[in-house]
Amino acid sequence: MNIFRFAGDMTHLASVLVLLLKIHTIKSCAGVSLKTQELYAIVFATRYLDIFTDFISLYNTFMKLVFLGSSFSIVWYMRSHKIVRRSYDKDQDTFRHYFLIVPCLLLAMIINEKFTFREVLWTFSLFLEAVAILPQLVLLQRTRNIDNLTGQYIFLLGAYRAFYIFNWIYRYFTEPHYVHWIPWIAGLLQTLLYGDFFYYYFHSWKNNKKLQLPA
Amino acid sequence: GQAVIQHDEL
């Protein structure tokens, strides 16, 4: 474990807690894409298949349970909670996220470190996570208004993977033979997808004005 | 290679 990875995990944890807190306290999911949340639930479900078979550390297992629990409860809130579901804007959240799942699965069948069930799904979860934010960014551009909590959620979600990139650089130089091109490239692409959001988020913060993405 | 690749990152 290194400081970059720990910072990344804490930032990731903060992002899901911000979203869960927003939905739980104000009982609203306005501006939040259910598609992105469903994709994240799939990402964690396919990435943590080893949760019961490989024990890495208490921290690792605990965090896996937190990410699984939070992502599925956010999906439950947005789909089934009688009050929260009313604020879900399904007419605007129309990104066909199944068009992301199939290509990621096919790609994972071709590009992986080992052609086994778990490894292919683990690779699939990396590719899917790289594009999972797209429905949320599309919804943002459609609705144009973005409340602070949703903005913070997306910012933290993008920042966590940026911290992971520093973690990979650190591990590359400190651990011999530590080379994992697949998460590195998927993680880099994922962070780049947040590029324009970061740009507008930073400017709205600097000029202290409401965050608006260009149409 | 190893039988099962252990991923220690989240």
UniProtKB/TrEMBL annotation, chain A:
<dbReference type="GO" id="GO:0016192">
    <property type="term" value="P:vesicle-mediated transport"/>
</dbReference>
<keyword id="KW-0675">Receptor</keyword>
<comment type="similarity">
    <text>Belongs to the ERD2 family.</text>
</comment>
<keyword id="KW-0472">Membrane</keyword>
<keyword id="KW-1133">Transmembrane helix</keyword>
<feature type="transmembrane region" description="Helical">
    <location>
        <begin position="55"/>
        <end position="77"/>
    </location>
</feature>
<dbReference type="GO" id="GO:0046923">
    <property type="term" value="F:ER retention sequence binding"/>
</dbReference>
<dbReference type="Pfam" id="PF00810">
    <property type="entry name" value="ER_lumen_recept"/>
</dbReference>
<dbReference type="GO" id="GO:0005789">
    <property type="term" value="C:endoplasmic reticulum membrane"/>
</dbReference>
<feature type="transmembrane region" description="Helical">
    <location>
        <begin position="182"/>
        <end position="202"/>
    </location>
</feature>
<dbReference type="InterPro" id="IPR000133">
    <property type="entry name" value="ER_ret_rcpt"/>
</dbReference>
<dbReference type="GO" id="GO:0006621">
    <property type="term" value="P:protein retention in ER lumen"/>
</dbReference>
<keyword id="KW-0813">Transport</keyword>
<keyword id="KW-0812">Transmembrane</keyword>
<protein>
    <recommendedName>
        <fullName>ER lumen protein-retaining receptor</fullName>
    </recommendedName>
</protein>
<feature type="transmembrane region" description="Helical">
    <location>
        <begin position="121"/>
        <end position="140"/>
    </location>
</feature>
<feature type="transmembrane region" description="Helical">
    <location>
        <begin position="152"/>
        <end position="170"/>
    </location>
</feature>
<dbReference type="GO" id="GO:0015031">
    <property type="term" value="P:protein transport"/>
</dbReference>
<keyword id="KW-0653">Protein transport</keyword>
<keyword id="KW-0256">Endoplasmic reticulum</keyword>
<feature type="transmembrane region" description="Helical">
    <location>
        <begin position="98"/>
        <end position="115"/>
    </location>
</feature>
<keyword id="KW-0931">ER-Golgi transport</keyword>
